[in-house]
Amino acid sequence: MRFLVTAGPTREPIDPVRYLGNRSSGKMGYAIAEAAIDAGHDVVLISGPVDLNPPTGAKLISVTTSDQMFDAVHQHIRHCDVLVMSAAVADYKPATVSKQKIKKRDANLSLGLTPTRDVLASLSKPDRDFVVVGFAAETENIEANALKKLRDKNCDVIVANDACMAMESEENEVEIFFRSGKKEKISRAPKKIIARELVKIFENVREKGLTKKIT
Ligand code: CTP
Description:
Layout: E1 2-7, E2 12-15, E3 18-20, H1 27-38, E4 42-47, E5 59-62, H2 66-76, E6 82-85, E7 92-94, E8 113-115, H3 119-123, E9 131-138, H4 142-152, E10 157-162, H5 163-166, E11 171-178, E12 183-190, H6 191-208
Parallel strand pairs: 1-4, 1-6, 4-5, 6-9, 9-10
Antiparallel strand pairs: 2-3, 7-8, 10-11, 11-12
Helix pairs in contact: 1-6
The site of cytidine-5'-triphosphate has 14 residues, from helix 3 and strand 9.
């Protein structure tokens, strides 16, 4: 199978020296890419800026901003069977990017923000022929928020985790929600172990062709 995996944060420039970012390390996405390769799949890994070596055998596409992530995923989506959106794509970007460094003044500074495009929602069309896996990084009401994302973004699978536990950590604990209403939990374990289980789950969803049963 052909996997398209996104990983890591995006950075949204404010001026030539500053950006809005988040604490995603990319470890979960990189572990999924590696596990998919180990299971014999072809992997394209679209990554935001991270401090990790890409898994041997993955085709790495490095991006920085949410707009670049959007374009890169759209460019590669045609050749994929399973899309895994584990990247922590920014929800907002500065409305304008200052060409010069913003100078310090003795007053409050407000930054105008504008919503970014949602990569996942833009691709989960009902007539698609690939499996769509979204992630849900939550700090509260994990199940309710994850189920809302599953519905709103028309995913086949949502992998939900506690953002506070998952970010920057070597370990994770995830709950997996399926379009069918089924759910599964993988207890706290190293991300590499969790990734192996997730890849088996995604293969299974693809094989059962659950994407065809869109309600
Ligand atoms: N996502 C995306 N494009 C964005 C924002 C998020 O594709 N601009 C994807 C993420 O990669 C993830 C899923 O949407 O697979 C959910 O991301 P998450 O940050 O948990 O939720 P949001 O949709 O951003 O909503 P909120 O921040 O309100 O929880």
